[in-house]
Amino acid sequence: MGQSVSLEEEIKNEADKHKNLHLIVVEGITKLTSRKVESCVSSDFYIDGLKWNIILVPAVGDDSLSMGLMLNDSKCVGSNWHVKCKVKVTLRNELITSMLYQTCSAHFSANCKKVDLVKHCFKKIHNYTDKDIVVFSATVTNVEPNGLNVTSIPRKMGTAERIKLMEVEKNKSKFTWKITHFSSFVGEHHSSYQFTVGPRRWFLRMCPQGTLEGKGNSLSLFLHASDYVTGPKTNTLAVYKLRVLDQFKRNHHEIDQQFWFGSDDYMGEPKFLALDKLRNASNGFLVNNQIYINVEFLNVSTSENVI
Predict the structure, then answer these.
(1) To which H or E segment does residue 306 belong?
(2) How many Cβ atoms from other residues are within 10 Å of residue 131's Cβ?
(3) Spatial contact of 117 and 87, defined as CB atoms under 8 Å apart
(4) Contact (CB, 8 A) for 26 and 136
(5) Using CB atoms within 10 A of its CB, is residue 121 exposed (0-12), middle (13-18) or buried (19+)?
(6) Half-sphere exposure of 267 (CA within 13 A, CB side)
(7) Dihedral class, residue 247 (left if φ above 0, else alpha if ψ from -120 to 50, else beta)
(8) Whole-prediction pTM
(9) pLDDT digit string (tens) for 248-262?
């Protein structure tokens, strides 16, 4: 009896056969099909001198997962360019022994940098896995750039990565920033100490008198991604809640957000909390000139290169 072949060996065989393939092993696919996570974005990969990403998004209006391809290259500026290509997209189980595939044409331009290629119903995806793992891939060929100065470098083999969508352990999910003498914070913005969740270091930044559309009327609050602790320097998903704590009744002011953070990225809300609500003593947000700002992580992603 022959020995079974590991997932990594199967992936390498696919990458050897298809030079223009990018493959992502998604662990935690039910985070997408349950809509706890709104998207899954691959790392950047290069084919024919252009930078691309695979994007998985639960479709609006039906129980299906849309698989798209994004042309995400800095050379694609202005309006007088377009790129045509052929794309073979696949859905496989965790053993790569069963496969659905579809080949289609894609046309990218300044007005359309993301093309939705195929939809898979949630039920079909669940039938493909008993370990919460599904493998997606895109093979991009016949790339025809027009109006772009592109130098094509032939690939020696395909590329592959593993993305884990995981819940953050409760005892490691929260960071609270205690700010005393709040009225003395007169600068435009102030930052917390850094803390580690998942593969990244993070910090909070607040603008006590607001910024952008919140300037002069709101407390602005943002979550910043900082250094990488583990894994490759790829985009990192964070699903989280930003809060200002109610020190009396635990009726905290909070917002839910999720974002794929690149290097030194940030996301938050310029109009997080109106200044009149912050200063209203009965709300319990600012007590004895002291405020508590909190972030709770629900889900994060980790990535590793398989090849």
Answers:
(1) none
(2) 10
(3) yes
(4) yes
(5) middle
(6) 17
(7) alpha
(8) 0.91
(9) 999 999 999 999 999
